[in-house]
Design a protein that fits this description.
Blueprint (H helix, E strand, L loop, with lengths): L17 H4 E3 L4 H6 L6 E2 L5 E2 L4 E2 L2 E6 L5 E11 L7 E4 L2 E4 L8 E8 L2 E7 H10 L9 E4 L9 H6 L2 E2 L6 E7 L8 E10 L7 E13 L2 E5 L8 E7 L3 E8 L2 E7 H10 L11 E4 L7 E3 L14 E7 L3 E13 H4 L1
Antiparallel strand pairs: 1-21, 2-14, 3-5, 4-5, 5-13, 6-8, 6-11, 6-12, 6-14, 7-8, 9-10, 9-13, 15-23, 16-22, 17-20, 17-23, 18-19, 18-22
Length: 333
């Protein structure tokens, strides 16, 4: 009697090995002990110079490299005159409020050896910091490495501090907007530094993709870079009502706005700071688990990738995908 071959059992969700799709972007315990920063954090102006001045519309600050490891690089604007509703007097100085900095500072770039590490608008940088509870008070904005509240373990916080051993250069570059008055305003940069020589090791880098969806309804986008481990993906655009994300054919997220906000609130996140945008953060639970690079995992075959179905409620929707990669710098550059 001929019997048809039994159908192959469908792979259950979650049957795939963790190392295939989710990668732990952190050092081993032994390595993390070697990366520990045992000295106190210093805040002093001698780590910063403005020797490069204004470069192609960006005010550029050179930061010390070598024996300097950065926990944060922050900046603010000091004004010689008070501006109603926009400045705060602290210690006899008029500082522009952090919520108003985007009016005077547009794009912010952190550049190592002539290559962008991170590139964000000052508004995006503030939004990211507020969301991750890594803010710097009422007047300072800046880059956190990674922020003291980022991870549950202290050794991981130290491992992600920005080491600069063997760097040729490290610069903070700020694009000043027309509203910036060079006669009355001055940018001040205040890094948080530990005097320890450390290789860059584990860190974050950013890249962004722009796409405009035409027409109301569901749109599919597949061109997210997959060569590096991904910490998070911001999806920024007006009128996005539903988001679905598939990784190598498996659905990871499929939610409308209410479901998404409920998820964030359950994890103690401040949804107001998102301003209607979406953030899918794989480090959100206090451990650096990242979406593994799809060209490095064993099960993946040709055509594997990330697919987004984005549902919009307006006719023309410009959308930015801001991707943050995380892991060993030599692997994500």
């Amino acid at each position: 009697m001929n019997m048809a071959a039994a159908p192959m059992p469908k792979k259950r969700r979650g049957q795939r090995r963790d190392t295939d799709v989710i990668r732990t972007s952190k050092p081993s315990f032994k390595a993390s002990q070697a990366l520990a920063l045992h000295r106190p954090t210093r805040i002093a102006p001698d780590y910063v110079s403005q020797s490069l001045g204004n470069k192609s519309g960006y005010q550029t600050f050179q930061l010390e490299t070598g024996d300097a490891t950065y926990r944060a690089i922050t900046f603010a604007i000091v004004s010689t005159v008070a501006i109603a509703g926009k400045t705060t007097n602290i210690g006899g100085k008029h500082y522009v409020n952090v919520a108003n900095l985007a009016e005077f500072i547009g794009e912010v770039r952190l550049v190592a050896n002539g290559t962008d590490l991170q590139r964000l608008s000052s508004a995006e940088l503030l939004r990211r910091n507020v969301f991750h509870d890594s803010t710097f008070g009422p007047v300072f904005n800046g880059f956190a490495f990674p922020g003291r509240n980022a991870y549950h373990r202290r050794d991981l916080v130290d491992a992600y501090a920005l080491g600069t051993l063997q760097f040729r250069s490290l610069t903070l570059e700020l694009r000043l907007e027309d509203a910036f008055d060079s006669d009355t305003m001055e940018v001040t940069v205040s890094p948080h530094v530990v005097d320890v020589a450390k290789h860059i090791g584990f860190t974050y880098t950013t890249e962004r993709i722009n796409k405009t969806f035409t027409g109301i309804g569901k749109h599919t986008y597949k061109d997210i870079p997959v060569a590096d481990d991904i910490k998070d993906i911001w999806i920024m655009g007006n009128g996005i009502t539903h988001l679905k994300m598939e990784v190598d054919g498996d659905v990871m997220f499929d939610m409308d706005r209410a479901t998404y906000e409920s998820y964030l609130i359950s994890n103690g996140r401040n949804i107001a700071t998102l301003a209607g945008n979406w953030l899918l953060d794989f480090h959100a639970e206090g451990d650096p688990r990242s979406l593994a690079a799809l060209d490095r995992i064993g099960e993946v075959r040709r055509g594997a990738g990330i697919k987004f179905d984005v549902t919009t409620s307006v006719e023309s929707t410009p959308v930015e995908f801001l991707v943050t990669n995380a892991g060993l710098y030599r692997k994500i550059r």
